[in-house]
Amino acid sequence: MSWAQQLFIVLNNINNVILYFIGIPFILQMIYMLLFFLPKKTFTKSDKKSKICVVIPAHNEADVIYNTVKDLIDKQTYPREMFDVYVVAHNCTDNTKEEAEKAGAIVFELNDEDPSKHIVAYALKHAYEEIIKTGIHYDFSIRFDADNHCNDEFLSLMNDAYNSGVRIARPYESGINMTQNYFTQACGLYYTFDSRFSSRARERLGIDAHVNGPGSLIAFDIIERIGGYDTTSITEDTEFNFKRMLEGEKCHFVEDAIVYEDLPSNFTDTFNRNKRIASGNIRLLGKYTPLFLWKSISKLRFSFLEQILTYMFNIICILLCTWLPAFYIYSAIYLGVNGCWTQEATALFFNLPIGQIMGLKSVLTIVAFAVCCLFLLCGLGQGFLLVLLDYKKMGAKTRRELIPGVLLFPAFTVIYCLTMCIGAFTKPKWNKINRNVNQSKE
Q: Is the dihedral of CA 397, 400, 401, 403 positive or negative?
């Protein structure tokens, strides 16, 4: 057997292993989607009103911070005297501080010339250290981003969860500008998948939620115990979640509490957002995967393994954009040149039993079938189901409004995968991004 034949066999075996690696996390997500009928978890209404601090890190967010703070202060059904809003103006060169104060927030300024500290983690670290210094007793904290809005019952619902024993939790994430254009529709469908399908299934099955976004709840005694905030990575929220799980904390999902964020409305904004997510998550996987695998075995806690399997999608994006297209293009050219169109011809060429290596016709058939399945089931099917079940939480008045986003959803998934792949090889900074400032949650 020639070296070229031996190389093809080795690469084919590697590809088979990679397909299993990709398939397992995909199967898990499909199971979550198929469990859409599970009832949501609700928490008992609490008469006790906890003291809450809301923390908002902001870097040059003068165009949105006023409305974010004002909306919280004026519209929450929770007693005003029971929550404070803190904004960290981090290395701002605009009037973020003045706009936040005018809206009613307590503002901390942080100016640091060290470019390595120009990320959200250091703003949060500074905020919690300063809040602890005030000596005010808070029961729990809520972290928002500068462009976030939430439903009017948000703090009340988080209070119910906290007084039911929840110490760390995430809300339902939706888009404030979901109906802005076709791109935001498709983008919003992608981000709401984890809330409606994955997070609900995790909560009902007793699996830890992924507390990695705006609106997250943290019991304040945790903040006090660790001295403020103990993560300084690009994806500080995910690492914070990982650390608390390793300490034995249980992470929950409060589905009726909804946070609306400003979704990327074009390719450039999506790319800038995904650079941070992919770059940070890849590094966290390298750091925490061995620990989580060990904990899943030693503690018999599936949540550790589930977190790793889900975050493996960052690596899967890289494989989908690099290895798989490269291998199948190489495979098609190599088999075609050598006349291995059928499985029998391939077996004869490699002097192997029939079935050990597929012919070109089988390779092309399987690739085409896989693409169709992903397009129809994981793309259109998932999008239609999301719109059918949760269109109101997405800010739409009718399901018909979101149909264009459903049809474009598979294409957006490809864009998302490409931007995550590129982002994995970058080291992003906390830069100002474009905001859809005229959008509101109503």
A: positive
